[in-house]
Amino acid sequence: MKLDFSEKAMDIGTSTFNFVRALSVAQTGAADINDCLLAAGRIQDNNAESWVREWDRLSQKAVQTAEKALVHGQTTTARQAYLRASNYYRTIILG
């Protein structure tokens, strides 16, 4: 995905805007910067299918982390992973 931070590319609804929105909550734990940047690198320009695929991949990874944490009684880790998953799922819908 080519990240374009020009004024037009940052309009609400563009992929760059939605990427920045997803990434902007990293300080709350709702995104992992490294994961988001890796996903952006795999998203093909102007390809909605690759957008959905990569954000879904991140979502599923976060859910798996959460479920594994719950099995081991690590509720804080599970909560944080579910928070990331919800943000990544939201990004699929907005993208």
Tell me about this structure.
The mean pLDDT is 92. The protein is mainly α and 95 residues long. The protein has helices spanning 15-23, 33-42, 48-71, 75-94. It has a single domain, classed as Up-down Bundle (de novo design (two linked rop proteins)), CATH 1.20.1440. α1 (15-23) runs antiparallel to α4, α2 (33-42) runs antiparallel to α3 (48-71) and α3 (48-71) runs antiparallel to α4. It has four helices and no strands. It is elongated and about 45 Å long. The longest helix is centred in the middle third of the chain and has 24 residues, at 48-71.
Q: What general form does the structure show?
A: elongated
Strand content: under 5%
Q: What's the CATH architecture name?
A: Up-down Bundle
Biggest sheet details: none
CATH class placement? Mainly Alpha
- The secondary-structure element order is HHHH
Count of individual helical segments: 4
State the secondary-structure class.
mainly alpha
Q: Under CATH, the topology is which?
A: de novo design (two linked rop proteins)
Task: Specify Rg, calculated over alpha carbons.
Answer: 14 Å
Features of the shown structure:
single chain, 95 residues, de novo design (two linked rop proteins), mainly alpha, 66% helix
Task: Give the secondary structure arrangement, pairings included.
Blueprint: H1 15-23, H2 33-42, H3 48-71, H4 75-94
Helix pairs in contact: 1-4, 2-3, 3-4
Structure, briefly:
This protein has 95 residues and is mostly helical. Helix content is 66%, strand content 0%.
